[in-house]
Amino acid sequence: MKAIFKKEILNDPESENSTYTNFTLKRNTEFCCEKFKVFCKKFTVWSYERGKFAIVDQITYEGQSIQPIDFCPFCGEKIDYEDENKPSKSIKKKK
Ligand SMILES: [Zn+2]
Protein backbone atom coordinates (compact mmCIF):
# COMPACT_ATOMS: atom_id res chain seq x y z
CA MET A 1 0.00 0.00 0.00
CA LYS A 2 0.99 3.58 -0.38
CA ALA A 3 0.87 6.00 2.51
CA ILE A 4 0.91 9.52 1.19
CA PHE A 5 1.60 12.24 3.68
CA LYS A 6 1.81 15.97 3.75
CA LYS A 7 4.89 17.46 5.31
CA GLU A 8 4.55 20.77 7.06
CA ILE A 9 7.03 22.87 8.91
CA LEU A 10 5.29 24.71 11.70
CA ASN A 11 6.35 27.25 14.24
CA ASP A 12 6.85 25.87 17.67
CA PRO A 13 4.28 27.58 19.89
CA GLU A 14 6.50 27.16 22.91
CA SER A 15 9.66 28.82 21.65
CA GLU A 16 9.89 31.66 19.21
CA ASN A 17 12.57 30.90 16.71
CA SER A 18 12.17 27.21 16.37
CA THR A 19 10.07 25.07 14.14
CA TYR A 20 8.99 21.49 14.07
CA THR A 21 7.98 19.16 11.31
CA ASN A 22 4.55 17.67 11.22
CA PHE A 23 3.53 14.82 8.94
CA THR A 24 -0.12 14.36 8.18
CA LEU A 25 -1.45 11.23 6.56
CA LYS A 26 -3.70 11.96 3.62
CA ARG A 27 -7.28 10.97 4.22
CA ASN A 28 -7.65 9.26 0.89
CA THR A 29 -5.05 6.66 1.74
CA GLU A 30 -6.05 3.30 0.41
CA PHE A 31 -5.30 0.60 2.90
CA CYS A 32 -3.93 -2.74 1.82
CA CYS A 33 -6.50 -4.66 3.82
CA GLU A 34 -9.62 -4.13 5.83
CA LYS A 35 -8.00 -5.23 9.09
CA PHE A 36 -5.37 -2.55 8.99
CA LYS A 37 -7.94 0.07 8.07
CA VAL A 38 -10.11 -0.86 11.04
CA PHE A 39 -7.05 -0.94 13.28
CA CYS A 40 -6.11 2.60 12.24
CA LYS A 41 -9.60 3.83 13.02
CA LYS A 42 -9.55 2.33 16.49
CA PHE A 43 -6.06 3.32 17.50
CA THR A 44 -3.79 6.21 16.74
CA VAL A 45 -1.25 4.43 14.64
CA TRP A 46 0.10 7.31 12.62
CA SER A 47 3.15 9.07 14.01
CA TYR A 48 3.01 12.79 13.23
CA GLU A 49 6.63 13.28 14.21
CA ARG A 50 8.03 10.51 12.05
CA GLY A 51 5.63 10.39 9.16
CA LYS A 52 5.19 6.67 9.52
CA PHE A 53 2.81 4.19 10.95
CA ALA A 54 4.01 3.08 14.33
CA ILE A 55 2.81 0.48 16.72
CA VAL A 56 3.37 0.28 20.45
CA ASP A 57 6.33 -1.93 21.00
CA GLN A 58 6.76 -1.89 24.73
CA ILE A 59 5.09 -0.30 27.68
CA THR A 60 7.63 0.76 30.26
CA TYR A 61 7.57 2.78 33.45
CA GLU A 62 8.49 5.90 31.52
CA GLY A 63 5.77 5.42 28.98
CA GLN A 64 5.47 3.69 25.67
CA SER A 65 8.06 2.95 23.10
CA ILE A 66 6.82 2.90 19.58
CA GLN A 67 8.17 1.02 16.63
CA PRO A 68 7.81 2.45 13.14
CA ILE A 69 6.60 -0.18 10.70
CA ASP A 70 7.36 -0.69 7.02
CA PHE A 71 5.09 -3.66 6.57
CA CYS A 72 1.44 -4.19 7.36
CA PRO A 73 1.18 -6.18 10.60
CA PHE A 74 -1.84 -8.04 9.25
CA CYS A 75 -1.23 -9.00 5.65
CA GLY A 76 2.49 -8.26 5.42
CA GLU A 77 2.28 -5.91 2.46
CA LYS A 78 5.03 -3.34 2.19
CA ILE A 79 4.06 0.20 3.08
CA ASP A 80 5.52 2.84 0.82
CA TYR A 81 5.73 6.23 2.42
CA GLU A 82 5.50 9.07 0.00
CA ASP A 83 5.65 12.82 0.38
CA GLU A 84 2.79 14.29 -1.65
CA ASN A 85 5.11 17.03 -2.89
CA LYS A 86 7.91 14.68 -3.80
CA PRO A 87 6.73 11.61 -5.65
CA SER A 88 9.13 8.75 -5.11
CA LYS A 89 9.82 8.21 -8.81
CA SER A 90 13.03 10.18 -8.52
CA ILE A 91 14.26 8.18 -5.55
CA LYS A 92 16.50 5.29 -6.42
CA LYS A 93 15.45 2.17 -4.63
CA LYS A 94 17.98 -0.22 -3.28
CA LYS A 95 17.19 -3.87 -3.63
ZN1 LIG B 1 -2.62 -5.16 5.17
Question: Please, could you describe this protein's structure?
Answer:
The structure is a single chain. The protein has 95 residues and is mostly beta strands. The chain is 9% helix and 38% strand. The longest helix has 9 residues. It has one domain. A hairpin with a 4-residue loop joins strand 4 and strand 5. It has a three-stranded mixed β-sheet with strand order 2-1-6, with no helix packed on it. Strands 3-4-5 form a three-stranded antiparallel β-sheet, with no helix packed on it. The structure holds zinc ion. The site of zinc ion has 7 residues, from loops.
Quickly describe the structure:
This protein has one domain (2-86).
Percent in strands: 35-45%
The number of E-state strands comes to 6
From the helix content, strand content and strand pairing, which structural class follows?
A: mainly beta
Number of structural domains: 1
**Radius of gyration over C-alpha positions, nearest whole angstrom:** 15 Å
Distance between the termini: 18 Å
Kindly report the spatial arrangement of strands forming the biggest sheet: 2-1-6
Average pLDDT, all residues: 89
Q: What is the makeup of the main sheet?
A: 3 strands, mixed
Helix coverage percent of residues? under 10%
Shape: globular
Bound ions, cofactors and other small molecules, one mention each:
zinc ion
Poorly predicted parts: none
